[in-house]
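Hi everyone, sorry if this is the wrong subforum. Our group has a chain we'd like a structural model of before ordering constructs, and none of us has done structure prediction before. Sequence below.
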Amino acid sequence: MIKTILYYTSNREDPVFEEKIRKNTLEKSGNLPIISVSQKPIKFGENICVGDIGHSYESEWRQIYEGAQAAKTEYLVFAEADFLYPEDYFNFTPDGKNLYRYDNVWILWKKGSNKFRRKKYSEGAQIVKREYLLEKYEEYFNGLDKYPLQGEQFEWFGGDPCVSFKTGDGVRTNTATLRGPEDHKRMIPYWGDAIELLQKYVL
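Answer:
Right subforum, don't worry. Here is the predicted structure as tokens:
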């Protein structure tokens, strides 16, 4: 076993929605070990509850760092509380690189849209070598004026789509998406119709 799922949440999403996300992650990830880092106790893998440290990217990175310290495997597979992942995401086997990002990520807003919109990549869909992550996050916490993993070289990997929901309860409600006509779709492979997926998980 060379991978551990690192699930992190500030517990600001609707609890029913987040439980559906965790169920999907559990179903699609096989037997990979899970470390969850949360601000309220949850029953999901090995849970680390850090308490209410705030709802920001800074608190998110500190939770990721806590989970990385606790993990024992060579790689960490990121998993967020508003992301649906297919089996392909968890089945990928790293070949020694430090950072891999998924090349098939779609955004689905709870309000104001009935289509999936493609994003170039998301840090919620990446696999990172644990020691490398710890080094980069320590540099940031020690005052380096750069977000952790921002601008770092990475390798692509891919498969069936990942879907990130924008419910309005995350750190940001907006995110940059691609603008080509092929990047806006009512239906995508594996997950199907945007409205039906919203109704299943969010509405």
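For your construct planning: The chain has a mean pLDDT of 95. The first strand starts at residue 3 and ends at 8.
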